[in-house]
Design a protein that fits this description.
By secondary structure, the protein is α/β, with parallel strands linked by helices. Helices cover about 30% and strands about 20% of the residues. The protein has one domain: Rossmann fold (3-Layer(aba) Sandwich), CATH 3.40.50.1360. Bound molecules: 2-amino-2-deoxy-6-O-phosphono-alpha-D-glucopyranose (GLP).
Amino acid sequence: MIKVLVVRNYEEVSLEAALRIAETVKSKPDAVLGFATGSTPIGCYRELVRMHRMEGLSFSRISTFNLDEYVGLAPDHSQSYHYYMFQNLFNHIDVKRGNIHIPNGMAKDLEEECVRYEDAIKQADGIDLQLLGIGRNGHIGFNEPGSPFDSRTRVVKLSEQTRMDNARFFKSLDEVPMYAITMGIATIMEAKRIILLASGEAKAEAIAKAIKEPKTVMVPASVLQDHSDCLFIIDKKAALLL
Ligand code: GLP
C-alpha cells in the first residue's frame, strides 16, 4: 500500500524529502541512493546542499544511480540530466565522482549501456532509497503509459505529452529528444524504499489515479501500490483529487 504524507506546499515537500534522505545517509553512510530529475526534486536537492554546508551532512561514502537520461544529449548539454544533477546537487556536496551513476545517452551501443547500468545497480547491492517524481500522465522515470511492469533499463520513445511538458526547458519542441534511457518499472520496484514527490494541481489527476485506481500499465506510478515501502510526499494541490 502507498503511504501518503500531505503537506502544505512545495517547500514542505522538499524539506520532508530531504530529511528522509539525510536520515538514510546518517544511519547508513554507504547508502545507495536513486535520484530523479525534473523540476520537482530541485528544492529537495537545495535542502540537501544546505544540510551539507551548514550541518556537516556528509555524502562521501554514498553511491548514486539516476533514473534516466535523454539519448543524444552530451553530459555538458544544459538540458541533459548529467548537467542537471551536477548543477543542482553533485557539484555542491562531497559525493565521490566515481560513485555517481547516470545512464550514458551518448553511448555508441545503447543496448549494451542499458545492460551495463543494470549490472552496476546489482554490483552495488541494489538501491536503498529511490526518489521519484511523476509525469502528468503518471510516468515514473521515463516509463511512459504502457510500459510493462517487468521492464528493466532500456531505450524508450518519449510520449508527445512528455516532450511537450519538457519543451519549456528547450528552445523549441524540435530540440526535445525523441528517446531516452530509463530504469525500467521492475528496476525501480526493486529499490528497498521509494519516495515519490509531487507538487501542484497539474499532478493531482496522476496522483489520484496512481493511489486510488486499480493498478494498470496505463498509469505507470500505480505499480507502486505493490511496493512494501513506498511513501508519496505531496502538497495540498497535488492531493486535491484524493
Ligand atoms: C521528466 C522525468 C521524470 C519526472 C517528470 C516530471 O519526464 N524523466 O523523472 O518525474 O519529468 O517532471 P517535473 O517534476 O518537472 O514535473
